[in-house]
Amino acid sequence: MAASEVDVALDAASASYKGMSSDNIKGLVMALSSSAFIGASFIVKKKGLKKAGASGIRAGVGGYSYLYEPLWWVGMITMIVGEIANFAAYAFAPAILVTPLGALSIIISAVLAHIILREKLHIFGVLGCALCVVGSTTIVLHAPQEREIESVKEVWDLATEPAFLFYATLVIAIVLILIFHYIPLYGQTHIMFYVGVCSLVGSLSVMSVKALGIALKLTLLGTNQLIYPQTWVFALVVISCVLTQLNYLNKALDTFNTAVVSPIYYVMFTSLTILASVIMFKDWDRQNPTQIVTEMCGFVTILSGTFLLHKTKDMVDGPKHADEENGFGEEGIPLRRQETLRTT
């Protein structure tokens, strides 16, 4: 009797888990490639920003001298390659699978920052990296299957439902308030304002990227979606959002430590993107409560890893450099400002 009950339970479990679809696997591979490129681009761009700031006006105070720095462009091209891979990933897999894998870019960024930028990675930072990997694996194994969409008009209908329209309007209003009121006053001393703009705008850009990716995928499969105006509207939104993200991400990277910017940006961006995807594409409607809870546990595990990576910077005790003795950190930021960040 007990054995038969066990067999029934095993059969039910195997039936509930159908494995990853071929589209999800394609999205997974592209998302992993994207993380590798983007993680490396943070470091290369940071080197370019520091080099440009030494001979011109820093991006953190409104300068654009980095546009004349070849190293920054190398990092920019690397990021573009990563974003293209990320773009393709969203065309095949749901955002709740693709977006959390950005944690791997944090690991790559932290390791390269340790090697190239001499931003020390503490042993607990290594543990943080391991937690990110475990959390990412959990989400990958329990991610929902991609929604079947046959036309970009279907995506447009999802985007114009009242719930998502309310979310998009709220995001735009908050972004405008941050840009025109809070950033001029507190942008140089509080990291959350620069990163907040990037993350909020990023959640809208991912939804538009996914819509545009689906349109291009269907077009390549023989169903032309370029004839619909909705496709071009999504393309315009992508361009506007990406340019805004790049501008404020450059400011954040130039003003604050890379190992602080990366995890905070990841946590806010991923949380808001998952929220936007749940509202627009209704990812959780195709899952049972157990799968949803497991995904959230995986996400919390990733958040724990990013938290450890962030706190690691305060645990490393090393010899003071000459610029530290003069009251400045390695990025030309007064140490008093860094202490303020740690207490906010």
Task: Describe this entry's structure for a reader.
76% of the residues lie in helices and 0% in strands. It has 344 residues and is an all-alpha fold. It has one domain. The longest helix is centred in the N-terminal third of the chain and has 34 residues, at 22-55. 44% of the residues are buried.
Please outline the helices and strands.
Elements: H1 2-16, H2 22-55, H3 70-92, H4 95-98, H5 103-115, H6 123-142, H7 152-159, H8 162-186, H9 191-220, H10 229-255, H11 258-280, H12 289-315, H13 322-325, H14 335-342
Helix pairs in contact: 2-3, 2-5, 3-9, 5-6, 5-11, 6-12, 8-9, 9-10, 9-11, 11-12
Shape label: globular
Order of helices and strands: HHHHHHHHHHHHHH
* Biggest beta-sheet profile: none
Mean pLDDT: 79
Low-confidence stretches: 5-17, 316-344
- Number of discrete domains: 1
End-to-end CA span? 60 Å
Cα-based radius of gyration, to the nearest Å:
21 Å
Task: Name the beta content range.
Answer: under 5%
The helicity comes to over 70%
User: Strand pairing plus helix content: what structural class?
Assistant: mainly alpha
Number of helices: 14
Please report the total strand number as a whole number.
Answer: 0
Biased composition (Basic and acidic residues): 333-344
Subunit structure: Homodimer.
Subcellular location: Cell membrane; Early endosome; Membrane
Region (Disordered): 320-344
